[in-house]
Write a structure and sequence with these properties.
Mean pLDDT: 95
Strand order of the largest sheet: 3-4-5-9-10-11-12-13
Strand content: 15-25%
Structural class: alpha/beta
Helix content: 25-40%
Number of strands: 28
């Protein structure tokens, strides 16, 4: 077998430990943390799936080293809580048994103590500690740590490292980036001390060196210690890449791997965790720059999902290790697929922030394209059915494809019918939106998976009750989707109007000045794309809010781009389309012409209920999934389709 990624799949020795490849699973917050702050069973499953998928190392996140000064509701490790050491031991075991090196991130939130606590009243009563007395940007007071407290925290890092080693973790990651306590000491914008822990870069690094020395004394020689730093804080007053290089140089004698991220929690969430609007691997440049100035191996991270890009990063000497977080939620088996030459089956992360939005909303995990995430203990893989059945899936959009693939993986005989000449459904329309190409690729990947699993795909096939009767399926899954809503206004059928779903087919019709009628998620994303292409774009929305269907993490960055690239007309109704543009009714009740060469109609989707209703009694087992139930999103479609297939 030809190996297209010889460096990415090659082992690397860090400390005295050999890692099976260069693809590491980055820290991601736990799923179910018990009231005693120990890992729950879902947390173990959450991390284990990444080990099973082939990651060389999986980092458990975040272990709070000193609950006395950092009362965040994150993982703790101590001998006083019954079952705490055992829970972490089972965790480390679950990673090692799949050949992955179990790692754990040691952390202190500093002035952001309580950030992840669900009890907001208790959070408000906490003391937030930092390098210096100050006030956070949100107005919360911060108390400066005394030297005695610093010494205590340094000691706690070592004590926790010793317990981590005892539990079976085989690498320690020290979190010194992203605005947490150690980064607060490193940052000239947050460290105003005048003693040996403030002032010069060397002084600001002092606590980090003391912590690293404490950890080394606890774990002994050869045990890998990794430090995670922000190569640049990327905000005014913070340190830049030049000081990031100096920080790395000042600690490299005490570490075995330098993990370079960027940004700060308070000032740069979207710099640290890149949105779909940013290039993949944008932050690799910071790791590459630091690597030029240090001798220890360097790890990079930043929206990476393409193995070809990862291999190129390693080949060009920009990094030695590739870290992925969200991508290994979308497809935990990416490392195994890369090693097996099955990269065309990889399901890529959409960078939609569904995973991150779910945590503050329900305190669980969910992924738009992976229905298993957060629910791994319910089953990490599709299990074969006891009895093989004939399954007919109607509609080859994302829901239909996922249902067909899953049913086939269970061993059923699956027929997938699609009334058009190609599969993909709404996903086809995403190929023309530059920052949503992964959504289009999702359809391609699912189609390849379906063919690999032996699904009989029948295109240009309209399914009627008579057609179902001719096949006599044991189970029928209806994924007949939705249809764009087209408002009944004069001129909407004109040649200067493009339905947003058809934009990929009629892109050449779109002129320089564009009005997007409809400010939902689809309309806003299309408007941003057109603005990025240099077009003059206006959004017309009847409501007083844009994209209310966008999740709480993605929406702020979407709105930032909407503000940058478009003009907004809120509480404004489209009345009629003319050759000169769109005539609207303003909030004041006046008619006004918004000049445009092209009108993009993006006012929503309507379930194809008639198609579903015609078939809902056509087989012994019938299940409806996706937009035909209720137009929503990929997350809902994938989840419903997957479980419908499991129920057969």
């Amino acid at each position: 077998m030809t190996n297209r990624y010889p460096i990415l799949t090659s082992p690397i020795k860090i400390g005295n430990v050999i890692f099976r490849n260069r693809m590491f699973s980055a820290p991601m917050g736990a799923t179910d943390i018990t009231p005693e702050c120990t890992p729950g069973p879902r947390t173990q499953g959450f991390y284990e799936l990444r080990a099973k998928g082939g990651a060389a190392s999986v980092t458990v996140s975040e272990l709070v080293v000193d609950p006395e000064t950092d009362q965040s509701h994150m993982l703790h490790l101590n001998l006083t809580t019954v079952g705490c050491l055992a829970a972490h031991t089972f965790m480390a075991d679950s990673l090692r048994r799949h050949g992955s090196v179990p790692s754990i991130e040691l952390s202190h939130s500093g002035q952001y103590a309580g950030t992840y606590m669900s009890d907001k009243d208790k959070k408000a009563s906490l003391n937030q500690w930092g390098p210096s007395d100050c006030t956070r940007p949100d107005g919360r007071p911060v108390k400066g740590l005394s030297k005695e407290q610093i010494a205590h925290i340094v000691k706690c890092y070592g004590e926790n490292a010793a317990l981590c080693k005892r539990a079976g973790y085989e690498m320690i990651m020290l979190h010194a980036g992203h605005g947490w306590l150690l980064n607060q000491f490193l940052s000239p914008a947050q460290n105003f001390r005048t003693d040996e822990y403030g002032g010069s870069t060397e002084n600001r690094v002092r606590i980090v060196r003391e912590v690293l020395q404490s950890i080394r004394a606890a774990v002994g020689p050869g045990f890998p210690i990794e430090i995670r730093i922000s190569g640049s804080e990327l905000f005014e007053g913070g340190y830049d890449i030049n000081e990031g290089i100096k920080i790395a140089q000042l600690v490299e004698d005490l570490v075995d791997l330098i993990h370079v991220s960027v940004g700060s929690y308070q000032y740069g969430f979207f710099d640290t965790t890149l949105p779909m609007f940013e290039p993949h691997g944008r932050n690799v440049q910071y790791a590459a720059e630091i690597k030029k100035h240090v001798k220890k191996p360097v790890a990079c991270i930043g929206g990476l999902s393409d193995p070809e890009q990862m291999e190129q990063i390693l080949r060009e000497g920009k990094a030695d290790v590739i870290y992925m977080a969200r991508q290994l939620l979308a497809d935990p088996f990416l490392p195994n697929k890369v090693a097996a030459g099955q990269e065309d089956l990889i399901v890529k992360c959409l960078r939609c922030y569904t995973c991150m939005a779910e945590r503050p909303t329900t305190f669980t995990r969910r992924c738009a394209v992976n229905p298993v995430v957060g629910r791994e203990i319910e089953g990490m893989e599709v299990t074969p059915a006891y009895h093989k059945k004939r399954v007919l899936v109607v509609g080859a959009g994302v829901a239909g494809l996922k249902a067909a693939v899953t049913a086939a993986q269970r061993g059923h005989d699956v027929i997938l019918c699609e009334k058009t000449n190609e599969v993909g459904g709404i996903l086809k329309s995403e190929q023309a939106i530059s920052f949503k190409h992964e959504m289009y690729e999702l359809g391609l990947s699912l189609e390849k998976q379906a063919k690999l699993e032996g699904v009989d795909i029948r295109l240009n096939t309209v399914v009627t009750p008579e057609y179902v009767e001719s096949i006599k399926p044991d189970a029928l899954i209806l994924a007949v989707g939705s249809t764009p809503v087209v408002p009944p206004i004069p001129g909407i059928d004109g040649n200067n109007v493009v339905i947003v779903n058809n934009y990929y087919l009629e892109k050449s019709k779109v002129g320089k000045k564009v009005v997007v009628l409809g400010g939902g998620l689809a309309g806003c994303e299309c408007a941003v794309h057109l603005g990025q292409e240099g077009k003059e774009v206006s959004i017309v929305e009847m409501r007083d809010t844009l994209a209310p269907d966008c999740n709480i993490r993605n929406r702020p960055i979407l709105m930032r781009n909407v503000d940058k690239y478009t003009t907004k007309y809120m509480q404004t109704a489209g009345l009629r389309v003319t050759p000169d543009g769109l005539i609207v009714k303003t909030p004041e009740g006046k008619e006004e012409l918004i000049k445009a060469d092209t009108i993009i109609c993006a006012v929503g989707q309507r379930s194809n209920r008639a198609d579903a209703d015609a078939l809902h009694t056509a087989a012994p087992f019938v299940r409806e999934v996706g937009d035909c139930v209720r137009p929503a999103n990929i997350t809902k479609a994938i989840y419903e389709a997957y479980h419908a297939a499991l129920d057969i």
